[in-house]
Specification:
heterodimer; A: 116 residues; mainly beta; seven-stranded mixed β-sheet; four-stranded antiparallel β-sheet; 0% helix; B: 114 residues; six-stranded mixed β-sheet; 11 strands
Amino acid sequence: GAGVSQTPSNKVTEKGKYVELRCDPISGHTALYWYRQSLGQGPEFLIYFQGTGAADDSGLPNDRFFAVRPEGSVSTLKIQRTERGDSAVYLCASSPEWSQGESGYTFGSGTRLTVV
Amino acid sequence: GQQVMQIPQYQHVQEGEDFTTYCNSSTTLSNIQWYKQRPGGHPVFLIQLVKSGEVKKQKRLTFQFGEAKKNSSLHITATQTTDVGTYFCAGGNAGGTSYGKLTFGQGTILTVHP
């Protein structure tokens, strides 16, 4: 597609429930990133994929968070047993294979997750 | 871990005045990127700097990367109301294995009064 697509745009869930957030990156972009952004803060790194594999998952806060990218395109961020502190905007971004070139991330519009 | 700090947190200017935001990293960076986020929007890539002492310009915007590759600045000349938003710097980790990962600063919120 023309841009990075994230669905749903908004998700309200009850504490303790399981949620899945989907990201469809720009066609041909091999690198895919998940960040989350709380109000008034900068994006906080969660995980980064190069192709199908997670190149760096050091930002995942705990084992309730998991992400997959089985075919090297669409990615799903999965959160188990959601807590109110998980409420944030979850941003997905993609980029061409990382190099020292001029490209940056292209972000999607995000999924606003609210845990009640 | 790597920390990226930005100052100021907020900046209010009159239209036509200049604006500068500063970014400092606790570690040497491989590269730095700048993003703009409009209210209610998502971050949009502006530019990347990779060389020590590099200066790049985009119309009224001037970006600098420090000689030690630990700091950067964004300067806007003669602000316009369309410049309103939050400006983020994001640093890449020099010597790290995760070349794709960026650490974002907390951003500078720019308000321009007409």
